[in-house]
């Protein structure tokens, strides 16, 4: 969502309630291009809301009260003095609503298309063909929502994602440098994970905190991001999810526009144990060249001896001129403290 670039990384103070019987808490609210992040004053993330699923309960009145459409008991209250944030959220919600199919129309259209496909061609009875069709028609807003839900399930095992407020802007700059101008909010640093990197629907890339904390060269974490983005490009993350969930999940997503929460929870648990797919060295080298990034630091991070990654060292596309800068020194220092207080 890039409807309002002037609201990128807008922050405000608010009052958050996790449930109707819970005590309200002072929080910091951060407005991204597709999400609303709610953190406590120490920077610990309390909730991630997809803007596509946010509703305003008070109409035009202030203080403004917002809630997820599936959880009206969880509320965020913004006072009159936070009008810039209120207007930013309202305008983004209107922009999303203009792009959203009218109520019932998406479900009816997808259902009709599915029925017509089944009736018109026997090939659509095959699970693989149905999965391809589902992946093709699911919109970006729904993919982001699925990715956000998976992150919520992951943090039950890994803890809340690391997001020291001072590291928030450097992390977004790193995302834009490597993934494109609309990639802010797409990098997620996990606090307690034995993996290295993974990807989710909605263009989210997961990173183990050790990749950032244990290396002095920012080209290392940049290399992991480039490699993971390449894996996501080679196989659609939503297709990977539907492979795991099976034929019924594709049918449910087509006809209702959502996936069962139990399915997403099970997939999140599986993601934490999946081994990384090995990428061909020549494919990696082309990706590093396109990103104007040295491959040698990443190669030694993967194998300290360099034996198994020797082609990435010997054919480093930026060995002579070096990488186009990934982050400034000050940004890198702040980013290395992303899991700190």
TrEMBL record:
The chain crosses the membrane at residues 108-126. The keyword Membrane applies. Keywords: Membrane, Transmembrane, Transmembrane helix. This is Peptidase M48 domain-containing protein.
